[in-house]
Design a protein that fits this description.
This is ornithine carbamoyltransferase. Keywords: Transferase. Helix content is 36%, strand content 12%. It has 2 domains: 147 residues, Aspartate/ornithine carbamoyltransferase (Rossmann fold, 3-Layer(aba) Sandwich), CATH 3.40.50; 162 residues, Rossmann fold, CATH 3.40.50.1370. By secondary structure, it is an alpha/beta fold. The protein starts with 14 loop residues before the first helix and ends in a 17-residue tail after the last helix. Helix 1 packs across helix 7, helix 1 packs across helix 14 and helix 5 crosses helix 6. The structure holds phosphoric acid mono(formamide)ester (CP) and norvaline. The site of norvaline has 9 residues, from helix 8. The site of norvaline (NVA) has 9 residues, from helix 8.
């Protein structure tokens, strides 16, 4: 059997592959829609159109190898795997031998010998690379020190679903609708501001949004430790994304002309000892109406955050206000993770010629 395709960062995927994952997410969301309806509304025409989403995980198990806490990613993976007809097996760091009595290499081979995919949330990115090196089945990054690719798929799906909220460039431009065919609404090129720490979530944005035609404006504190690590910047340059990224230290400058303003926690999991210094360094970085008004954001700007959120990063007025897309964004973790499980874990080994169906160069 051929080697599986792993998914460690969106930098490894082409634009058509990213769009394919988004379309699949949207289709799975639609196919699963009857389950989302309130009790009693599944009647008449709706009942006749009841469909199952792809059952590509039937009789298959995805190991959730999580060495860090999670709400969204875990719930999305567990509920998504069951909708695809399979099972997610949660293996927290307290449950298994990994990291105490057993190496990453041996764990990858053993877990991959019994499960059909590994969804791994790790500390250092090298751990998920090591898993991928030795796993006989696909490994998907559920968050590492460097990247958080499934989060950015959910962010993109959310932006496409809310494309109508962004004033079109041409007054007569309308979201594309094709009868009977599920198409993502066309999204005009956006200016996306990120105000906060250069961490895993931002890194996958940097290698993805510019390739989809969006401009990025980023503000991080002056200390070079808040800039993207060289390994990330190398991928930004390799993918020719650098020219679409403005980077400075002033959050007000960063939100200039922004259609979307995004932030993340200032203290990522594992950085708790640096909390006091970080709160000091991020003074003035809280996303507020005032910051965006003074900075000259597009008056219709929208707010996004991967969650979990703390008040220091964004105040309640913005977070719970009409600009906020944070909860649809969280819901979309499920459909995008389902698409990843479906295409990369469920279907990768189904071709009769032994080639993975989901191939890097065959989309
Ligand atoms: N956004 C995100 O990854 O959330 P969790 O840490 O709760 O999975
Ligand atoms: N940057 C955050 C993302 C959490 C989803 C962290 O790594 O903790």
């Amino acid at each position: 059997m051929s080697r599986p395709l792993h998914f460690l960062t969106l930098a490894d995927f082409s634009v058509p592959q990213i769009k394919r994952l988004l379309t699949q997410s949207s289709q799975l969301k639609r196919a699963s829609e009857p389950w989302l309806l309130p009790q009693g509304t599944l009647a008449g025409k709706r009942a006749n159109s009841l469909r199952l989403p792809s059952q590509s995980l039937f009789n298959k198990t995805v190991a959730l190898l999580f060495s860090k806490r999670s709400t969204r990613t875990r719930v999305a993976a567990e509920t998504g795997a069951s909708l695809l007809g399979g099972r997610a097996l949660f293996l927290g760091s307290e449950d298994i031998q990994l990291g105490v009595n057993e190496s990453v290499r041996d764990s990858a081979r053993v877990i991959g010998g019994m499960c059909q995919g590994i969804f791994a949330r790790v500390g250092d990115h090298s751990e998920v690379e090591e898993l991928a090196k030795y796993s006989p089945v696909p490994v998907v990054n559920a968050l590492s020190s460097l990247w958080h690719p499934t989060q950015i798929l959910a962010d993109l799906l959310t932006l496409h679903e809310h494309a109508h909220l962004f004033s079109p460039l041409k007054p007569d431009a309308k979201p594309e609708k094709k009868k009977g065919v599920l198409e993502l609404s066309e999204l005009r090129p956006l200016t996306i501001a990120y105000v906060g720490d250069s961490a895993n979530v931002l890194h996958d944005m940097l290698v993805t949004f510019p390739r989809l035609g969006h401009q990025m404006r980023v503000a991080t504190p002056a200390d070079p430790k808040y800039r993207a690590p060289q390994a990330v910047w190398d991928r930004v340059v390799e993918l020719d994304c650098e020219k679409s990224i403005w980077w400075g230290e002033d959050p007000k400058e960063a939100v200039k002309g922004a259609d979307v303003v995004i932030t993340d926690t200032w203290i990522s999991m594992g950085q708790e000892a640096e909390a006091a210094q970080r709160y000091k360094d991020f003074e003035g970085y809280q996303v507020t109406e005032e910051l965006c008004r003074e900075g000259g954001a597009n008056p219709d700007w929208k707010f996004m955050h991967c969650l979990p959120r703390k008040k220091n990063e964004v105040d309640d007025e913005v977070f719970y206000g009409p600009r906020s897309l944070v909860f649809p964004e969280a819901d979309n973790r499920k459909w995008t993770i389902m698409a990843v499980f479906d295409l990369i874990i469920g279907k990768w080994d189904l071709e009769a010629d032994g080639q993975p169906r989901w191939q890097k160069d065959k989309l």
